[in-house]
Write a structure and sequence with these properties.
It is globular, with a radius of gyration of 24 Å. The protein folds into 3 domains: 80 residues, Winged helix-like DNA-binding domain superfamily/Winged helix DNA-binding domain (Arc Repressor Mutant, subunit A); 143 residues, Aspartate Aminotransferase, domain 1 (Alpha-Beta Complex), CATH 3.90.1150; 235 residues, Aspartate Aminotransferase, domain 2 (3-Layer(aba) Sandwich). The chain is built from 15 helices and 16 strands. Helices cover 40% and strands 14% of the residues. With 474 residues, the protein is of the alpha/beta class.
Length: 474
């Protein structure tokens, strides 16, 4: 039997987390080596006197982190974990970039996909692909079964009492944004849309492609969206916001801010486009209600499966009602649906049978564990501040008191080590005055946990070094 240490039934930590920690420690210490077959969940549960579900939950954590590998027909084995250097990189001297490491892509927007393709996933796609192909698309808003499943999903996870007819299936967030912008009616010669600054760069690209005018609204590091600056505008056709978890700074609107924005939108006749970004992973915070729940007629809500499953799946939705819904349907009719019927059938089965809920619960446990590891790693580190960790799949490292040029130097130094991150300044609207310190943005969901934490060690070393020396020497 694998040595998992002592399990304390009286401890605050759940038994499945204690068990996962013990197996993880055995792997890192070399007591369990790559390729070793671990006991079945039933056998280990019997040996330890635990419920089998406890062992299943622990194995799911370790599979998601990359310490264990499950092979169809081959059981579950210990992953081949590369050993990290015994001495952590120091921050007192410039990093020697000649010691190249394998590429670890920590650019934001990449969820962990381990465990997506399980028995439920394969079953849903097998049954969907066995259906006869329809001669044509009969409903441009999406497969009725998928829209019903999405409505039920939103009712369970976001408290939205949404009718299936109010759901429009899209090929992810970008398609939803494009469709929404095309459906809006400008009051002037061209569409004027308020956007968060800093914010999601692709929104700016879409507006530019459409010839619309992007109106930047400042987002402050400490206080979030500048509501005074927003309320100064009376002629916006729409405003696009991420109220649940701002991208990338991580702030969220409280109840007072939500009420204030919706009141302003009603007075000014502005459509609010709500990107319900990262709502699946609140990391212990009480989720606040979507804006659409507070004002269904004035808010278009956009959601996606990208962060739960994969951006490569290209599937999401728009929720709208009344006149806004009619305009969106008309735009969809002009452009034709963008998601294949086979995919929609498969996802309808996957959601309706509870597989998405189970997968999300597994991912949530994994991401919360990774977040704790990050908080521990950055605790007490001088010269840098870790922020934007109260939800979602990314974090921001602020380079305290470092000159602006140090940001690019840090990004380049990490890239030379095979660690890809994004500069914080890249999220600001070019040519605008944004009160942002130098910093980097990195995702922590996609790589294995050992690879992530090794990369984090280098991030800390390079960032601390940038705070102490001239940026040209990083």
């Amino acid at each position: 039997m694998i040595d998992v240490g002592i399990l304390d039934r009286g401890a605050a930590a759940p038994l499945h987390e204690q068990l996962a920690h013990g197996i993880r420690a055995a792997v890192l210490a070399g007591r369990a080596r790559g390729g070793d077959v671990v006991p079945s969940t039933r056998a280990l549960a019997a040996d330890l006197g635990l419920a089998r579900g406890t062992v299943v939950a622990a194995y799911e954590i370790l599979l998601g982190e990359g310490y264990l590998v499950s092979r169809p027909g081959g059981g579950t084995t210990v992953a081949d974990i590369p050993r990290a250097p015994s001495v952590a990189p120091t921050a007192s001297a410039p990093v020697d970039v000649a010691e190249a490491a394998p590429v670890v892509d920590l650019r934001p927007g990449r969820p962990g996909t381990a465990g997506v393709v399980d028995a439920a996933w394969r079953s849903a796609w097998r049954r969907a692909s066995a259906l006869e192909a329809a001669p044509d698309v009969t409903d441009v808003t999406g497969d009725p079964a998928l829209r019903a499943a999405i409505a039920a999903h939103l009712a369970r996870t976001r408290g939205l009492a949404v009718a299936p007819d109010e759901v429009i299936v899209t090929a992810g967030t970008s398609d939803a944004m494009l469709l929404t912008l095309l459906a809006l009616a400008p009051r002037g010669p061209r569409l004027r849309v308020g956007i968060e600054n800093p914010g999601y760069p692709r929104v700016r690209s879409l507006l530019d492609r459409l010839g619309a005018q992007a109106v930047p609204i400042p987002v402050r590091l400490a206080t979030g969206l500048d509501l005074d600056a927003l309320e100064a505008h009376r002629d916006l056709d729409a405003v696009i916001v991420t109220p649940h978890h701002h991208y990338p700074l991580g702030s969220r609107w409280d109840a007072a801010a939500r009420s204030r924005v919706l009141g302003w939108a009603a007075r000014s006749g502005t459509v609010v486009v709500e990107d319900d970004y990262d709502s699946e992973f609140p990391h212990g915070r009480v989720p606040l209600p979507p804006l659409h729940l507070l004002d269904p007629a004035g808010v278009v809500s956009i959601g996606t499966l990208s962060k739960v499953l994969s951006p490569a799946l290209r599937c999401g939705w728009i929720v709208a009602t009344g006149v806004l819904r009619d305009r969106l349907v008309a735009a969809r009719e002009d452009l034709d649906p963008t998601v294949s019927q086979v995919q929609q059938h498969a996802l309808a089965l996957y959601l309706a049978e509870g597989a998405l809920a189970r997968h999300t619960a597994r991912r949530r446990r994994d991401y919360r564990h990774r977040r704790r590891l990050l908080l521990d790693a950055f605790a007490g580190v001088d010269g840098v501040t870790l922020t934007a960790t109260d939800g979602g799949l990314h974090a921001v490292v602020l380079l305290d008191d470092a000159p602006p040029a140090s940001e690019r130097a840090v990004v380049d130094a990490l890239a030379a080590r095979g660690i890809l991150v994004s500069p914080l300044s890249g999220y600001a609207v070019p040519g605008t005055a944004v009160d942002l310190p130098a910093g980097i943005v990195f995702g922590y969901a996609e790589p294995s946990t050992p690879a992530l934490m090794e990369a984090v060690g280098w991030i800390i070393a390079v960032a601390r070094n940038a705070a102490r020396v001239d940026p040209d020497t990083v």
